[in-house]
Design brief:
about 400 residues, 8-stranded parallel barrel, 9-stranded mixed sheet, alpha/beta, binds pyridoxal-5'-phosphate
């Protein structure tokens, strides 16, 4: 991860399981993207859902990033890290009145609106607060992507966005609503996209839509192309920021609009791992299980998306490779980090690194089986800081009473 610190030392001092991030890798990711986009100069709004740790958010804010949020909790986080609310975009199909009011009061850049009923709620909140709500219409462009079904968001089978055919009528309606300022259009067709084709289709459709709306007299200023840039976990061939930038230059830049992007995974991808310790090994009729102290509550991606994460022993061990299932301690058959994986013969106590775990890792962790969520550590050069401590047993009971 580009840092020098001894992970074994962190395991001893902080314990396992534990998320470890590299500050240098995070910085390199954000700078690589900004470099690729330097001619376009978009507002890059990091999708907080990918990694919500305050230290990570702060780092990106210091690099000039804005944020894409999907809940009041994420808004609270970005404000707590000192981010500028004027660089915050609020997406999501189910914003509540409380969340909308909070976002209006804080003066966020805009809402990405996902339904007619949401427009009405935003209107009434804005009226009450005597504010004008700035919005973009999140277009459902009806474009499919090749990624796990749960990571696809851009066709009419999905709950996201407003059908592109409905957009002109809604935009015309919004012209007459004083509480709303329609500033742009937005889309996000899915996540972990590893081909340029769906991006190109979406960009073309969005550019067409933008032009149609402008031709009908609706003055739009922004166009938001969402996130979705895929990364390499195993043998994927990601499209790369340069190629993505070229597509933007070809299809979107000629519009002359301000371009907004919402990358999540791309900015954190290889900048973090989940460190776990082997508790037991067990062989059942020839099948070998490595039972480790991290489980699906710590990293649910293998279970939820059948995601493949490389797993490396911290200490290189020679000898034959064994085919093993790396499983967690939870009482669920779906509790695994890897299946049928080639790993060396290891003894209990060995440390393992589950790679590429910074994106959609800790954010999806839970307290299932009354497990305490893992800490997060940020390495910088030859030192590290604990940026989230391990939960305590008292933390687990904090919100409860005996009734
Ligand atoms: C609206 C929206 N924007 C951005 C993202 C970030 O996507 P990714 O992490 O693939 O870049 C997501 C994630 O699915 C999303 O739902």
């Amino acid at each position: 991860m580009g840092e020098e610190l001894d992970l074994e030392r962190i395991a001893l001092e902080v314990g396992t399981p534990c998320y470890v991030y590299s500050r240098a890798a995070l910085l390199s990711n954000v700078r690589t993207l900004q470099e690729a986009l330097h001619r376009i100069k978009p507002l890059v709004c990091f999708a907080v859902k990918a990694n919500q740790n305050l230290a990570v958010l702060r780092l990106f804010a210091d690099e000039g990033a804005g944020f894409d949020i999907v809940s009041g909790g994420e808004l609270y986080r970005v404000l707590r890290c000192g981010a500028d609310p004027a660089k915050v975009i609020y997406s999501g199909v189910g914003k509540t009145q409380e969340e909308i009011e909070m976002a209006l009061a804080k003066g966020i850049l805009m809402f990405n609106v996902e339904s007619r009923q949401e427009i009405e709620l935003i209107r009434s909140c804005a009226r009450q607060l005597r504010k004008t709500a700035t919005i973009a219409l999140r277009v459902n462009p009806d474009i499919a992507v090749q990624s796990h079904p749960y990571m696809q968001t851009g066709t009419h089978h999905h709950k996201f966005g407003i059908d592109y055919e409905e957009i002109p009528a809604i935009a015309a309606y919004l012209r007459r609503q004083p509480e709303i300022r329609l500033r742009g259009i937005a889309c996000h067709i899915g996540s972990q996209i590893t081909s340029l084709q769906p991006f190109e289709k979406a960009f073309k459709r969005m550019a067409w839509m933008f032009r149609e709306l402008c031709a009908s007299g609706i003055q739009l200023e922004t166009i938001n192309l969402g996130g979705g840039l895929g990364v390499r976990y195993k043998d994927e061939k990601p499209v790369g920021a340069e190629n993505y930038a070229q597509l933007l230059e070809k299809h979107i830049c000629p519009l002359g609009a301000r371009i907004l992007l919402e990358p999540g995974r791309y900015l954190v991808r290889d900048a973090g791992l989940l460190m776990t310790r082997l508790l037991y090994t067990k062989t059942t009729r020839g099948k070998i299980f490595y039972i480790v102290d991290a489980g699906m509550n710590d990293l649910v991606r293998p279970t939820l998306y059948h995601a493949w994460h490389e797993i490396q022993p911290l200490r290189q061990v020679g000898g034959e490779l064994l085919q093993v299932d790396v499983v967690g301690p939870l009482c669920e058959t779906g509790d695994f980090l890897a299946r049928n994986r080639q790993l060396p013969r290891l003894r209990p106590g060995a440390l393992l690194a589950v790679m590429q775990a910074a994106a959609y890792g800790q954010v999806q962790s839970s307290n299932y089986n009354a497990r305490r969520r893992a800490p997060e550590v940020m390495i910088q050069g030859n030192r590290y800081s604990l940026i989230r401590r391990r939960e305590t047993y008292a933390d687990l009971l904090f919100q409860e009473t005996l009734g």
